[in-house]
Amino acid sequence: GLLQVVKQCVRVPVFVMIRPRGGDFLYSDREVEVMKADIRLAKLHGADGLVFGALTEDGRIDTELCTALLAVCRPLPVTFHRAFDMVHDPLVALETLISLGFERVLTSGCDSSALEGLSLIKRLAEQVSVLCAPWGGGITERNLQRILEGSTASEFHCSARSARDSGMKFRNPNVAMGASFSAPEYSIKVADVAKVRTLNAIAKNIL
User: Quaternary arrangement and interactors, per the entry (predicted)?
Assistant: First the structure.
């Protein structure tokens, strides 16, 4: 439903994240079935590309599963998401992704943010020849210029969100619907148009 509505409202390409649950990136057979079903439905309802990632228990790219999922995704372009930041050897992992046919990778340089991981991002960018790599993780209007100039990246990925208070007037303080302490029950994160425009302006000035 979200994909259908988004496609009606925007003209930019929409890539759909295939992620059956939170947590790690080691998936069970049932979860793989869900991922394949989600890919088929996303394609059916107009996705312009897919985004997923899968690892083995020892922190390597799960080539067997990725190959199977890529086959379901075709002919759409596919991005490997920030599961990349949990790999054992990022340089080897990047070569694996290129050989498998991924067109993009999302990474913060295997660190808490793209700024902290900038040195690795620069090494990865030097290694990339056919892979377009948008870096992500903690990118804001305050650090985007430094990251783009320091990484030679041609694309970037960020959430550009702000908190918006709920419109609920009656609030029951005794019940929580699964929200954690970092995500208050009566506050939601939404895309901030002003932030997006600022980030775009910064990027256009550099790229």
Answer: Homotetramer.
